[in-house]
Amino acid sequence: SAYFDLTDLTLEELTAASFLTCLLGRLPTRSRTAAQLQNAVKTWLGRLSFRLEVTATPEQPDLCTPRLSAECSVLEENLPRALELMADILTGTLADQPDRIREILAMERMNAENEAVNSGHSFTRRCAQAHFSAGNAAAEVALTSRSSGSRRKKNRKRKSRLKIFLPYKISQNQ
Are 101 and 138 in contact (CB under 8 A)? Predict the structure, then answer.
């Protein structure tokens, strides 16, 4: 696993980072086509995932740390290939196919909507929890942005940095 600190992102950029997790590993890189990339992942890795994680402590519910998590499972003898593949995906992914990106994001949106319909109680619980801690609020922003396909109007206008993040309270990192 590798973790990348996202605390310097604006709320709009954090929403974009949520979408980025859907695209990594599914778009071509500078050295591989999308088909070659998928073949390499199936050949050398047992599992590959990218996601936005938010960590918080119960002692400080007004603070949270959003991170991009890159994880894979791999046999020890394939570790050098796995590291090279992860580096290729993280540093070389090409975002020059807007039609493919729209297709991937549409599929993700449909999946999120199906999850909301099939597990509405969980979806509602996560949205309600957003009002009680920074970690839950940041996680809800990512969830809402992926399922609605748009950002909240108030979040679009924010230029502050993510430091303290509650739905109606955002501290500015000067």
Answer: no
Give yes or no for a contact between 1 and 82, defined as CB atoms under 8 angstroms apart. no
- Would you state the torsion angle of the CA atoms of residues 40, 43, 44, 46, taken in this order, to the nearest 10 degrees? 120
9 close to 75: Cβ distance less than 8 angstroms:
no
C-alpha to C-alpha distance for 51 and 71, rounded to whole angstroms? 9
Over residues 15-41, mean pLDDT: 92
HEC assignment per residue over 152-164: CHHHHHCCCECCE
**Which backbone phi and psi does 162 adopt, to 5 degrees?**
-75, 110
- Residues 101-159 have pLDDT tens digits of 999 989 988 887 887 777 767 767 777 777 676 666 766 766 555 444 433 333 333 33
Structure tokens that stand for 127 in this block: 């949205």
Q: Look-up: residue for tokens 């796995």?
A: 82
